[in-house]
Specification:
The protein is 43% helix and 23% strand. The protein has 222 residues and is of the alpha/beta class. It has one domain: Vaccinia Virus protein VP39 (Rossmann fold, 3-Layer(aba) Sandwich), CATH 3.40.50. The radius of gyration is 17 Å and the shape is globular.
Length: 222
């Protein structure tokens, strides 16, 4: 695995196609300064999420796992006029850092932050009769992925897209004997996706500055 080469290619692609502005750069810097883990999406991955939001002409986006708000900024900037991003974060400190970054990026007016366990936030949205989401981005605790999928299925419609990050786990997802709870979580998630008749899906392996991993993309078909 040539991590140096992967990172160099990421840097080339970012410099050529994904120029970051001050708000995005500050979101990354603030995460490091505030002691948040360095696990946000890369710039190229952020642009992918932005393009998905724009391609779907999304007005409703749901994110599980805000961290410092980096991916939320990318997606919020792709929303249609009047669109709304709901982002859920377990850690109050992370949510505070994200709130400042969203304000700095000028997108706070189109983002709703929910703080607390994602499962509870999903239950609350269902009880509130929340309108269906056009795009769901799951990037939270991996052992919770199967439960999140089950609850998200009540918050989407035909044509919605569900993206789940970090599902390849350096290739460990294919290891049936792996005892890592995060790996088991994504295995159960993918098995649930495969068993759900309302979904058709794939997994794309990725390499880059974030190492070797991948994401799943599922389309709600009914």
């Amino acid at each position: 695995m040539d991590t140096e080469r992967w990172t160099a290619v990421d840097r080339y692609v970012t410099d050529l196609l994904v120029p970051e502005d001050g708000a995005l750069a500050q979101a990354q810097h603030s995460a490091a300064a505030e002691g948040l883990p360095p696990i946000s999406v890369s710039p190229a991955q952020g642009m992918l999420l932005h393009l998905l939001v724009r391609s779907l002409r999304a007005t409703r986006v749901l994110e599980l796992g805000t961290l410092a708000g980096y991916s939320a900024i990318w997606m919020a900037r792709g929303l249609e006029d009047g669109g709304r991003l709901v982002t859920c974060e377990l850690d109050p400190h992370h949510a505070q850092v994200a709130g400042r970054n969203l304000e700095r990026a000028g997108v706070a007016d189109r983002v709703e932050q929910r703080v607390g366990p994602a499962s509870g936030s999903l239950d609350a949205m269902a009880a509130e009769g929340a309108a269906p989401f056009d795009l769901v981005f799951i990037d939270a605790d991996k052992d919770g992925y199967p439960e999140y999928l089950r609850k998200v299925m009540g918050l989407v419609r035909p044509g919605s897209v569900i993206v789940a990050d970090n599902v390849v786990r350096g290739g460990q997802v294919a290891d049936a004997a792996c005892e890592d709870p995060a790996v088991i979580g994504v295995q159960r998630y993918l098995e649930a996706v495969a068993a759900e008749p309302r979904l058709t899906a794939t997994v794309i392996q990725t390499v880059g500055s974030k190492g070797y991993d991948g994401f799943s993309l599922a389309l709600v078909i009914s």
